[in-house]
Structure formats: structure tokens, C-alpha cells
Design brief:
This protein is mainly α. It is 50% helix and 8% strand. Strands 1-2 form a two-stranded antiparallel ribbon. Helix 2 packs antiparallel against helix 5. The longest helix is centred in the first third of the chain and has 11 residues. The C terminus is likely disordered. It comes from Ruminobacter amylophilus. InterPro entries: TypeIII_RM_meth (IPR022221). This is Type III restriction/modification enzyme methylation subunit.
């Protein structure tokens, strides 16, 4: 499965919204996009045969995105086990003198 995690990370990094300026991966931004059924995220996942096979189901000729399964993979500790990612809230509140309110 680790090879699939590498493929998924490469796919997701194609979208600049999911990568901070310093290159860290923003897992929460991806998760939020999946919950919102973001069309750019869906297109990225459909464009790759491996992610399409993993996260989409054919239901009577219609491809349905498995956002629960996708969320499980994104939040799985084996996906980025070294914690080389940054949450959206941390990024938005970095270097702020006042308390951060999201």
C-alpha cells in the first residue's frame, strides 16, 4: 500500500492548494476539499488510473466518489508517517500575534 500512498501524494501535489510555500503537504486542505466534493480534486483523482480504481465505484454506469474511503486513506498514519504535512489552521495562524480564530 505504501506505493499507492506515493502515487496518491504525487497526484495531490499537482494542486497548489494542497502544498504550502515551504513544500509541506497540507492534509487538512485535501480532506476539506474531499468533503466539499471539490471538482478539481475529483478531476485529479479521476485522471490517475490507480486513484480512480481506489476511490470511485461504478453504480449503474455512474462513477461515485468514495469520500469516506478517501478520508480514511488521507488520515491514515501510514500516509505521511513522518508527519511531513501542515494543517490548514496552523498555516493560517502562523506568525500571528493575536489569538487565531478560524
Amino acid at each position: 500500500m505504501s506505493n499507492f500512498f506515493d502515487i496518491l501524494l504525487d497526484v495531490l501535489k499537482q494542486d497548489n492548494r494542497f502544498v504550502a510555500n515551504d513544500g509541506t503537504f497540507m492534509r487538512n486542505a485535501v480532506y476539506e476539499a474531499s468533503i466539499q466534493m471539490d471538482s478539481n480534486l475529483i478531476h485529479l483523482l479521476l485522471a490517475n488510473p490507480e486513484t480512480k480504481k481506489e476511490f470511485f465505484r461504478d453504480v449503474d454506469g455512474v462513477l461515485v466518489f468514495d469520500k469516506v474511503g478517501f478520508g480514511w486513506v488521507i488520515n491514515n498514519r501510514q500516509f505521511l508517517p513522518d508527519r511531513q504535512y501542515e494543517t490548514t489552521s496552523t498555516k493560517e495562524c502562523k506568525n500571528v500575534d493575536l489569538p487565531c480564530k478560524l
